[in-house]
Structure formats: C-alpha cells, structure tokens
Amino acid sequence: MPRKRTIKEHKGLPARWRFRFGSYRYVVPLGQEHLWDGKKEFTLGKTLAEAHRTFAERIADVVDADTVGELLDSYTVRVLPEHGFKTRESKTTSIHRLRAVFGEMGLNAIEPHHVYKYVDLIGKKNGPRAARADWEVLRHAYTKAVEWGLVKRHPLMGQVRLKKAPPKERYVEDWELLEALKVAPPMLRAYVQIKLMTSLRRKDMLLLTRDDLKPDAIHVKPSKTADSSRIKLRIEWTDDLRNAVKDALAAHNRIGSLYVFCNSKGQSYIHPEKGTANGFDSLWQRWMKKALAETKLEQSFAEMDLRKKAITDEDNVALSSIRSGHTEQEITKKVYRLKGARVPAASGLKLENE
Fold this sequence. Notes:
- The chain is mostly helical.
- It folds into two domains: 8-147, no CATH class; 174-336, Orthogonal Bundle (hpI Integrase, Chain A).
- The protein is 44% helix and 6% strand.
- It contains 13 helices and five strands.
- The chain has helices at 48-58, 68-78, 85-102, 112-126, 128-147, 174-181, 186-198, 202-206, 239-250, 278-294, 303-313, 317-323, 329-336; strands at residues 17-20, 23-27, 41-45, 217-220, 233-236.
- A hairpin with a 2-residue loop joins β1 (17-20) and β2 (23-27).
- It is globular, with a radius of gyration of 25 Å.
C-alpha cells in the first residue's frame, strides 16, 4: 500500500480542511452541499483567522461531535478565533499532538489515567511545558463540550493534577548589562533604560507612540490585559526617563516616525496581525552576539529578562506589581521576583566579654 502523502500546509488543520490555491478550503461532506451554497469545496478565506471565522459562522447552529478529534475540530473553529495570533499558534500545535493520540477516542471514553500517560509521553519527547500546554487545551475543550451539551459532565475536571514547570530564572547582574551596553546600538541603549524604568512588556514598549507621551506621564494600556482587567498605567516622568525617551526618538530622528521605537521604514516592529517582532528580535540577537564576542559578558540574556530584573530590583512589591500591570501581587512574587525577600537579621546571642 503506498504511503499516505503528507502536505505541509494541511498539518494541524481540522478534518476536511485543506490549503489550496492560496486559500483555506473545506471539503463538504456528501449530501451537505445545500448548506454550503451548493458547493463541494467551499473557500473559507485566505488567512487562517479568516477561515476560522467563516467556518464558525457557518456551523454556529450545528455543534456535533462523537470523538475527541471532532471536539478538537469544533474547538479550533469556534474558540481559537477569539485568541491572539501567538495563542492560536500555540494551541494549534497542542491540538495537532492531541488529535494524533486521542482523535479516534469517544468523547466519554477518556479517563484521567489516559491523560497521565499522555503527559508522560509528551513530556519526555517535547518537554514538560509542552505537555502541560496540551493538557490545558484538552481540559478547556471538554469545558466547552459541557457548555455545548456534548457531554453531561467534565470527565477530567478535578481528577488530573500536574506539577507546574518552574519558571525560567535568569537574573541579569548590573555589571553584565553595563558590559553589553558598551556595544549596543543607540536605540537599544535607550530601549534598555526605558525598560528598566517602566517594566513594560516588549509589545507595549514597541507600540509606544509619541501620542502616549503626555505632559504628566507616559500613558499605557497594557495589551495583554486590554480585554480582561483593562488596566491602564500612567508612568510619571523623571529626568532620567525623559532623557531616555529623547535618546530613543533621536535614534530615528531623520525618519520622523510616530513610534518611539521603529524599524528603518519608520514602522512599528510589531506585526499588526501576528503580534510578532522578528526585526526587533534579530536586532537583539545581533547585539548579544557582538556583546559576547567583544565584551566581558559570558552569558547572553533575553529581552524578557530585563522585565524580570526591573521588577526584582524594586524593593516595594506593591509598587512593582502595579508598575508591571499585574492584577495580583502573588503573580509578581512567584514569577518575576528572582531575588529572595529582603529581611533584617535577627538579634544574635549576646556573649559575655572574656
């Protein structure tokens, strides 16, 4: 029997989906053509996000699934479009792995021991973080299955307990940063200074515009919580912060961009649809490579390590939590505080003079 052909563009797509002639298409099941404008193959859209939206609208009133694979297909087209690009990409990868193992299993057949075996298998192959990410997708898919009336109760809720992978710890020492800054481009020098003073996430840093620079403060609406807690920040000016912002704007003064940090064309580094910043990432990597080769820096550090450093170096946890845009101080303490809590030494035993 000839080997089944694997098409790269079809990998991870829901059942009956394909990518052909620059568009995502749905192969209509026999007898259902009347539901899809009489077509045997229906064009969903040119982008994956558009395809998900179109498909979700078409099946809004038809939710049916007998297997885990069919549930994951419904989850893909009904839930994933609500998320941003990176989350969709991550969950799509998890769905592809889950479908390969559980796809043919009946919805009510899955049990906790199946999940534990899966987590052990994927953990050894792809790492504990990937395994946990897959479990979270599966758990949420079954939550939606209850909501959609596909199952009467969640078969896994409260019965699977996984250890959380410890956060990556990399505290950048002051001397390391000073060494690296010796060979940093002017824009990155300003970027680092502003990052340390504001604790802003990379996306919010790269989306800063001149309009955000108000007379009283830098006004920021963190993108990560824009649709949830809707936190807003006003980062008050200091002389050092003003000077760092002036340096950032001066780095591309000839272009006259709206953005505080921009590429050579004056545009934001953030991709409007994907949320990625490939150009900025490349710039950062070239800087690290040069710093390792020409300075005393022995270990590179990531952009996100500077946010952790800024949060850690602030002794006041409450202030640090507010500045970083966290809704709870516990998030600040558990994930971002890399140094131990500062405490005074206790009184020792008073010894008699000999």
